[in-house]
């Protein structure tokens, strides 16, 4: 993995294999996600699913998922001083960020699983549901069946079922 450092603790990693990217998210102190206006990317959901603390722009659609002080921090996209202050405050007290990290991951498990996404697409397209509603369906693992192992080459948010 090649890194270049822009300052103490700031690393620009370049292109990484997916498994390495996921490991980076899991050990990162923060993931700064700034977008205006744009679609919500999988990278933000992936960071949250990995339990990474997110500092995101207070813009749609980021603020639809990221809740200030609950599962991450929102900052004004146009206020670079506020962004910097948010990053510094986060790094100054990592212990205080643990509940937000846990909640971000819990939110991804609760509302952004592959099953839920597929069901939403089916509803949107007016298709009959081919996706089971619960874990007891034969198409999905039951408590008696082993759950599939995690695939390090596939995004974590796609594997949460």
Structure description:
With 161 residues, the chain is mainly alpha-helical. It has a single domain (16-159), classed as Glycogen Phosphorylase B (Rossmann fold). It is 43% helix and 11% strand. The chain has seven helices and five strands; from the N terminus they run E-E-H-E-H-E-H-E-H-H-H-H. It has helices at residues 18-27, 42-49, 62-65, 80-92, 94-111, 114-125, 156-159, and strands spanning 4-7, 10-12, 31-33, 54-57, 73-75. The protein has a three-stranded parallel beta sheet, sandwiched between helices. A two-stranded antiparallel ribbon has the order 1-2. The longest helix has 18 residues, at 94-111. It is globular and about 50 Å long. The two termini are 30 Å apart. 20% of the residues are buried.
Task: Give the key terms.
161 residues; 3-stranded parallel sheet; mainly alpha; two-stranded antiparallel ribbon; disordered N terminus; single chain; Rossmann fold
The major beta sheet can be summarized as:
3 strands, parallel
* Percent of residues in β-strands: 5-15%
> How many domains?
1
Structural class: mainly alpha
CATH homologous superfamily label: Glycogen Phosphorylase B
Mean pLDDT across the residues is 81
Low-pLDDT runs of 5+ residues are: 1-5, 135-148
- Radius of gyration from the alpha-carbon trace, in angstroms: 17 Å
CATH architecture: 3-Layer(aba) Sandwich
Number of helices: 7
CATH class: Alpha Beta
Anisotropy-based shape? globular
Task: State the share of residues found in helices, binned by percent.
Answer: 40-55%
Give the tally of β-strands. Answer: 5
User: What is the string of SSEs from the N terminus onward?
Assistant: EEHEHEHEHHHH
Instruction: Give the strand line-up of the largest sheet.
Output: 3-4-5
CATH topology: Rossmann fold
Terminal CA distance? 30 Å
């Amino acid at each position: 993995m090649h890194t270049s450092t822009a300052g103490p603790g700031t690393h620009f990693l370049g292109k990484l294999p997916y498994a390495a990217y996921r490991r980076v998210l899991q050990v990162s102190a923060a993931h700064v996600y700034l977008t205006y206006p744009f679609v919500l990317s999988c990278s933000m959901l992936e960071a949250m699913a990995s339990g990474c603390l997110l500092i995101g722009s207070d813009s749609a659609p980021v603020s639809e998922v990221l809740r200030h002080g609950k599962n991450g921090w929102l900052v004004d996209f146009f206020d670079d001083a506020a962004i910097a202050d948010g990053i510094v405050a986060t790094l100054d007290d990592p212990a205080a960020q643990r509940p937000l990290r846990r909640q971000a991951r819990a939110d991804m498990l609760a509302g952004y699983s592959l099953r839920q996404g597929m069901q939403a697409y089916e509803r949107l397209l007016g298709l009959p549901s081919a996706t089971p509603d619960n874990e007891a369906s034969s198409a999905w693992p039951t408590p008696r069946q082993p759950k599939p192992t995690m695939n390090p080459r596939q995004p974590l948010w796609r594997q949460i079922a």
